Amino acid sequence: MAPVRPIRKGSEEPLAMHSHAIDNLRYIRETMERAGSFTAVPGWGGVTMGITAVAAAVVAEWQVSPKQWLATWLVEGAVAIAIGVIAMQQKARAAGLELWSAPARKFAFSFVPPVFAGAALTFALWKAGLVHLIPGAWLLLYGTGVITGGAFSVRVVPIMGAGFLGLGAMALLTPPAFGNFWLGTGFGGLHIIFGVMIARKYGG
Questions:
Q1: I need a labelling partner for 61 at 20 to 30 A (CA). Which of 19, 103, 152, 160 fits?
Q2: Interatomic CA distance for residues 176 and 113, integer angstroms
Q3: Quick one: which of 131, 121, 135 has its CA closest to 174?
Q4: Cα distance between residue 204 and residue 200, in whole Å
Q5: What is the value of pTM for the model shown?
């Protein structure tokens, strides 16, 4: 009688249970990350950005030429970006979160295009001699970026973006002399108000 041989080779062992568990946990973590919200929006960092914007509005009001006025606000923009990035890094580190997570990437990819459009439009308006339209354009496009990026963040962020849209519309509808006021109210006042709200409700 011929010997009975197993169909599977004895050397082939079933996958260990912990391998399946690790794969499942990795899948769950990645799914939750993709579905999560970007919570590293800096509250106190936003307050700091608002304070520097108020200072910039005061300094810009003293400038005697459109070129100096624009330079003041461009410097403020660079300072605000630096403050925002550093504040986000610190908040993400304190919360044990990855700064460049899936929600953060969604936030960035939604926020950056309107800001880039604002930079290009600034150059075009300057070349055309339409500097008085720049405050409205900045507020509208920044508000658009905050709303689109805020769709992947905490609920209060898109509300702040709507506030920027409203101020941008006011800047375009009121006399040019009010442009600097609307910039200070938006980049200063709104950042301070909503920064405090974010810091208190979402931890810094």
A1: 160
A2: 26
A3: 135
A4: 7
A5: 0.78
How large is the greatest C-alpha to C-alpha distance in the chain, in angstroms? 108
Joined together, the tokens standing for residue 72 give: 């003041």
50: tokens are 């608002």
Tell the burial category of 202 from Cβ atoms under 10 Å away from its Cβ (0-12, 13-18, 19+).
buried
Give the whole-angstrom CA distance, residue 179 versus residue 181. 5
Contact 201, 156 (CB under 8 A): yes
Listed in sequence order, the residues at least 6 apart from 112 whose beta carbon sits closer than 8 Å to its beta carbon are 145
Residue whose entry in the numeric block shows the structure tokens 């579905």: 35
| Residues 63, 74 contacting (CB under 8 angstroms) | no
Per-residue pLDDT tens listing for the chain (204 residues) = 555 555 555 444 455 555 555 655 554 454 444 445 555 677 888 999 999 999 999 999 999 899 999 999 999 999 999 998 888 888 777 767 676 767 677 877 888 899 999 999 999 999 999 999 999 999 999 999 989 887 777 788 889 999 999 999 999 999 999 999 999 999 999 999 999 998 888 776
